[in-house]
Each structure stands twice: as C-alpha cells, then as structure tokens.
Design brief:
By secondary structure, this protein is an all-alpha fold. The protein has a domain of about 100 residues. It contains five helices and no strands. It starts with a helix and ends in a 7-residue tail after the last helix.
C-alpha cells in the first residue's frame, strides 16, 4: 500500500513538473532592457557613455536568432563600445563578457533570446516571428526610447 502511494505521488509530481514547463508563454514578450546588465552604463568619471550600445545590443539579444546573428550582434556591440569609449580594452572586455555570459542555455535575464521563454536556444526566427519582433520593437521605440537609468 505504501509503495503504491509512493508511485502515485511520484507520477503526480512528475506530471506537475511537466505541465509547469508548458505553462510558459511561447511568444515573444515585449522588449525590456536593463542597460548594460551587470556592467556600468557609462564611465564613472568623464563623458564616455556606452549605454546606447548596450540598449541596441539588448534589442538583438531580446529578439534572438541564430548563432551567426548573435556573433554579428556582439561584433557590432564591440565596435560601438570602442567608438563610444575610445577604449579598445574596454570594448574587448565587454565583448568577452557578452560572449561568455550571453549564451542561450544559461537561465539568465540577459541570455541570447531573452524575449522568448527559456529553451529556445539558437534558432532563426520564422517570418511571422520576425514580423512580431519588428512590431514589438517599433511599438517600444514609438512609446519612448529605452533609456539607461543607472
């Protein structure tokens, strides 16, 4: 009798865990940004401000896509940070950080494809998904330009 209850309880818990994984929204969520995530948005002293680079990079990471799209996004980010900061060392440091920490299989708020439910990984957007991403991006930008608050 005790063994049967354990089996039923185990099956019930397994079903609950499986169903809870299905409860996430499959579509793309509205765009959100935290600026440069775990990195300062601008220089503590002086005029250098690379936050706009981070917001543009977040737009690409929110949307997600293929591994090649991520690599291109990260390269553009590095160029932007270098131009904004005039510091190749800073640009390379931030590039290394996004390459290491932005992988899509880490369950973080800044992973590649963070606008989608966790588990999408590297996958090009279908035409209807891309249209949805463009509409959400345009709606966000029309409302107000995303800003860095730190």
């Amino acid at each position: 009798m005790l063994r049967r209850r354990s089996v039923v309880l185990g099956a019930g818990l397994t079903a609950l865990l499986v169903l809870s994984g299905c409860a996430s929204t499959p579509g793309l969520r509205p765009f959100s940004t935290d600026g440069c995530s775990l990195f300062p948005d601008r220089a503590p002293v002086g005029q250098a401000d690379w936050c706009g680079c981070c917001v543009a990079h977040d737009l690409a990471y929110w949307r997600g896509g293929s591994a090649a799209e991520r690599l291109e996004s990260d390269r553009v980010f590095r160029q932007c940070v270098q131009a904004a900061s005039r510091s190749p060392a800073l640009a390379c440091t931030m590039y290394g950080a996004v390459r290491a920490g932005g992988v899509p299989w880490l369950p973080s708020a800044f992973r590649w494809g963070y606008g989608w439910s966790y588990g999408r990984l590297y996958r090009s957007l279908a035409p209807e998904e891309d249209a949805r991403a463009v509409a959400l991006r345009d709606a966000c930008l029309a409302e107000s330009a995303p800003r860095c608050t730190r």
